[in-house]
Amino acid sequence: MMSRKAGGSRTMSSHTGRMNSSRQSFALNLGTRVTVYWSDDDEWYKGTVVSELLHHNDDRVLIEYDDGYTDWMSVTADQWRAASSKPDIPIQHDTVFFALKREKVAKLNVGSRISIWWPQEKQYYTGTLTKIDDDSNNKPHHVRYDDGEEERMNLLHHQFKRGEAKAEHLHVGSRVSVYKEPQDQHYFCATITKIKPYKARPHRVKFDDKSKGKEWLNLNIHPFLDIDDKSMHGSTTTTDTGTARPVSDPCSKPNARNLKKRKREFLVLQPPNNSAINTSTREQKKAKDKEQEEEAAQTTKKVCKEICAICNSRAKHPRSMSCHHIFCKRCIKNHSKQQQRTDEEASCPLCKIAILGSKGVKYDPSYVSFKAVEALKRTTAEVAHTFSSASAASLQSSMGGLVLPSCIVKACQSKQRDSRQYHGFYWRFQGCKDRILRVGESNKDGIAIEQVDPETGKIIETFSSTRKAFEMTNVSRCVIKRVLERRGKATTGGFFWRFQGETHGPWPDPEPTNLNPVEQLDFETGDFLNSFESIAEAKRAFGMRPNSGCIRDVCVGKGRATAQGYFWRWKGSQALPNHMMGVQKIVQIRKTKTGKVVKEFRTSRDAQAYFGHPCCWSTLCRYCREKGYYNKYYWQYRVLKEPKSAEEEMVGKRLRVQQPGNRDEWLEGKVEDFHSETGKHEILFDNGTMEQHKLEDIRYEWKNDQGQKPVEQLDLKTEKILATFNSISDAAASLSLSNSGGISRVCMGQCRSSSGFFWRYKGSDALPPKPKGKRKVEQLCLATGQVVAAFDSITAAGKAIGITTPGISYCCNGRNSSKSAGGFGWRFVTVDKSTP
């Protein structure tokens, strides 16, 4: 027998000489269990007898195997034996499977469209049943396939399915024979004159019989026969009424009852061919298949130039495994057999990856394993190597190290740049048009752009990238990118920009946004000062940055009270500064979020002064708004909406008080609090004394310095005081600085220096920070431990020896247990502070 796994037909077994006597004397009846030997598979298969002998001189019986396969067995020629020592109880009727199969075959008529399963090719082949022999022949069914082959078979022993009606091949002018059920179940010849697929009845047919006229039908479900002039004249005849029916087989028309039972899901019937059927069609088909295989083998031999990874020669009958390595068919088969003998798991002989299936994939240029691949450089994205396949790339010694073809194929199939990287290269299939970006390159970098005149539309110049355009025109890359992405205005720098190859022109400017007018008010009095059409116009008038949001924050009431020293509001709003609305925010600090209040401050500047200026007052405002945790306290506001009296309004202001007994002595201070019970104000003088006075009983003057503190200017190297100023503003003015923020940050400890000097508030003991990072190092001999050389810094030592500085630093600091760097030991030079 041939191999059942390959799906071939049965042949005579070569084991006929080994028939035992018990088998010869064993009676075969319906339902008898037997075990049959298949020589090609070298295995025994169990089955059941499901059919008796067809002829008295025929010794064959039909066996239904346990795996669902059905085939005939010769009692005398094939090797078989009983499935058990005791014969099974015979049955006198067909099995359920065989009874259903007989019923299915009995419904077939001449002209039926069927699809027959071929196990060897693992697919169905469609054909037409052209003839059914009435006598009890072993192969009563004649089938003509659509590819022109013909065959005789017994459909009772083959797997098949009925074809479905399809009319996609029809076109205007096609000749058909349409079935008319109400009129005596006849077919009438007609021609298709129109096809409208969107209609429920898309096909318009014109009958040859003029009395039938024209009719719209749906031939997808309506039964019909494909005919042409040759087939119609050769195999059909037309009656006086225009009815077309086959001449050789009047039974080719379908049964009306069967059509109704199948809910009019009719088959597309074809007229039978009356030519003589060749009895040796199967042998001819086998010979044709063999010629095609030989032709394919010759083509593979000419085209495929892959090297077998086992024998290191050109692969004969190449097979690609699941790991995408390519081997000869014989080489991988021998390797698989060797692994089976040793009970090893099937794996690739090179990469040791488990493989699925032992046969692999035949040579197919369109399959990923046989496609040519390219390795591209990561820095320039240029092609560095080209290989005939991923397997060939893994065998190249120039690649260095272990290269897995499965990873190469995965990288080629990926659409992301990072996933396309493997073994130091980017990978893609040869001929792929996908552009791979270089390292550090974005999607638009490296693409040429055009500089266009917005009025004439003419191209002024073409640049290779936005960076090149910026270098030549001094127009910001970010602004050019905005125009390239078609956002905002269409021009920048007086030009229109677009990618090379695009043809669109400038677009109208978008409608301006944020045109809400704003009003400028005096913060102390609330008097109206000026009005602006928009926030942008107000920022331009005060020289503010375009992206500044100070004015908007004041308008929406977001944390800020002023911007540029003024109060701002939307035009038409009745908003006023908080102190004029009777609203006051008091800063509170707590140890726990819901605990008791530890201390209260009238302003954030008071809180800043209390903590020694560790940060900016605006930072404290942010923590108060967010109720956050900072400097070991929880911060939040307490809003007072009660209107304040005139005496309470004086709290927080600066003044100077004339001392009694000496009219020339004045002390400066600040009003800290007001006691309503006594009517006295608590004044904290700058010398640290605290006194309570009624303002009407003393002589005083208000000051407008808002509590500026004197600052000192120190030399960075000698730490000597160079000058003292009354305020930070006076210090900035002495150095002609437009912004005093740098001096303020140094005083608060946020910066080391400003304008080449160190700054501090008067009375503070802060000193300039010492420079860091420059320590002398010594180079030591590892063998003797003696000092070889000394350097002023780690950087100087690295440049002199020619090694990287982190290695020396690790060795000096004992980091990562480093003992040497560059073949030498290293250590910092210790300075003896006792030595003068």
Automatic annotation (TrEMBL):
It is found in: Nucleus. Gene3D superfamilies: 2.30.30.140, Winged helix-like DNA-binding domain superfamily/Winged helix DNA-binding domain (1.10.10.10), Zinc/RING finger domain, C3HC4 (zinc finger) (3.30.40.10). Its main location: nucleus. Residues 10-20, 271-281 have a biased composition (Polar residues). SMART domains: IENR1 (SM00497), RING (SM00184), TUDOR (SM00333). GO terms for molecular function: zinc ion binding. Residues 308-352 form the RING-type domain. The keyword Metal-binding applies. Keywords: Metal-binding, Nucleus, Zinc, Zinc-finger. One of its GO terms (cellular component) is nucleus. The keyword Lipid metabolism does not apply. GO terms for biological process: DNA repair; mitotic sister chromatid cohesion. Residues 282-291 have a biased composition (Basic and acidic residues). It comes from the Eukaryota. Residues 1-20, 229-256, 271-294 are annotated as: Disordered. CDD domains: RING-HC, Tudor_Agenet_AtEML-like. InterPro entries: Intron_nuc_1_rpt (IPR003647), NUMOD1 (IPR010896), Pds5 (IPR039776), Tudor (IPR002999), WH-like_DNA-bd_sf (IPR036388), Znf_C3HC4_RING-type (IPR018957), Znf_RING (IPR001841), Znf_RING/FYVE/PHD (IPR013083). This is RING-type domain-containing protein.
